UniProtKB/TrEMBL annotation:
Record-stated family: Belongs to the DprA/Smf family.
InterPro entries reported in the protein's UniProt record: DprA, DprA_WH, DrpA_SLOG, WH-like_DNA-bd_sf
Entry protein name: DNA processing protein DprA
Signal peptide boundaries: none
Domain Smf/DprA SLOG: 79-293
Residue intervals of the DprA winged helix domain: 319-372
Length: 377
């Protein structure tokens, strides 16, 4: 396991078990660690937290975690924890950063300047060549190319990066982020490419081994792609495509969003053209991208969407006269509402509201939405 110096094997095991337990997502995981200090202590507290919200609770079994660890090792992978020295600082900066990843390859690649290249699966021949050329040029300039190993633009971006001379850093570098477990190749025809990325670059999965790539996993995969990179380039995309989700996420994270313009006669270009209209930077060559990202100081030139507010950190102490989860639940409906608004309406402290929300989520009664909003599940 790849882990920080202070992380024992027992705590690493407890962290995996905590994250795999019911109703514990990335935000809840971080709040539990902040409140209880260790994953072991958080696991002990879960039944009581859920009980306050009126539901029984059972954490995932130790045997299931042992089986998962064995499967990760069998695949040649290892775990990367959020506080490890080789966990990407850019990825760690986003609100929903994955607490634990499984990886194959060299995690240090994620510490280098990264650019995401994404686009249509059913891309035109010209767009595939553009993606390959952009990735080749950017990798040769020293950037690590991040993409999602999908058909079309993603695959071309990985191949272009791998074919480059990495500007004194060895071969061109690429990171593939997949929506399945680390031991599953998807699409199947990219199996050899996935193995090559694991051998020469870095392969990343958030889902446990054995997990098939379901539709709901792809937006989660996309946030990792956007989170790893200082900027995201969309080469070709239709409206409402997954590539545009990645671009919007990058904009929300305060990263650069770039797009290659295309013919208005081709529906596959409409997404890129709309992005440019909405504030993405128009680029026509790898040099354009390199110029933007080489001087990136955290203030993007693109304005695709304002960043969502960051959720408050849960406080360590809550006084006895603060409202319980049931009181906060009375203010909630199935319509998402900002946590800040709940704090104002309840008259309670931020720490009390966050604790109540945590109890409701562990009990399976709360759903978290983008922008620090919550609703009843």
């Amino acid at each position: 396991m790849s882990q920080g110096a202070a992380l024992t094997q027992d705590e690493a095991f407890a962290r995996i078990r905590l994250l795999r337990s019911p109703n514990v997502g990335p935000v809840t995981y971080r709040q539990l660690l902040a409140r209880f200090g260790t994953a072991g202590a958080a696991l002990d507290a879960l039944p009581d937290l859920a009980g306050r919200a009126g539901k029984p609770y059972r954490a995932v079994s130790e045997q299931r975690v042992q089986d998962e660890i064995a499967a990760v090792r069998k695949s040649g992978g290892r775990y990367l924890f959020h506080d490890s020295d080789d966990y990407s600082p850019l990825l760690a900066a986003i609100e929903s950063a994955p607490p634990i990843l499984t990886v194959r390859g060299d995690p240090a690649l994620a510490l280098r300047p990264c650019v995401a290249i994404v686009g249509a699966r059913n891309a035109s021949a010209g767009a595939v060549k553009l993606a390959r050329d952009f990735a080749h040029g950017l990798a040769a300039a020293g950037f690590v190319v991040v993409s999602g190993l999908a058909r079309g633009i993603d695959g071309a971006a990985h191949e272009g990066a791998l074919s480059a001379d990495g500007g004194g850093d060895g071969g061109g570098a690429t990171i593939g982020v997949i929506a399945s477990g680390i031991d599953i190749a998807y699409p199947p025809e990219h199996g050899r490419l996935q193995d090559r990325i694991a051998g020469e670059g870095l392969l990343i999965a958030e889902q446990p081994p054995g997990t098939e790539p379901l539709a709901r996993h792809f937006p989660a995969r996309n946030r990792i792609i956007a989170g790893l990179a200082a900027g995201t380039l969309v080469v070709e995309a239709a409206p409402r495509s997954g590539s545009l989700i990645t671009a919007r996420l990058a904009g929300e994270m305060g990263r650069e969003v770039m797009a290659v313009p295309g013919s208005p006669l081709d529906a596959r270009s409409h997404g890129c053209n709309q992005l440019i209209r909405d504030g993405a930077v128009l680029v026509q060559s790898p040099d354009d991208v390199a110029e933007l990202l080489s001087g990136f100081d955290g203030v993007p030139r693109s304005v695709v969407r304002e960043a969502d507010p960051v959720a408050e950190q849960i406080a360590a102490q809550v006084t006895s006269d603060e409202p319980a989860a049931t009181g906060i639940a009375d203010l909630l409906t199935t319509a998402p509402i900002a946590v800040d608004e709940l704090i104002r309406q309840s008259g309670a402290s931020a720490s009390a509201v966050q604790l109540a929300l945590l109890e409701l989520e562990i009990a399976g009664r709360l759903v978290r939405h983008a922008g620090g909003r919550v609703s009843l599940g």
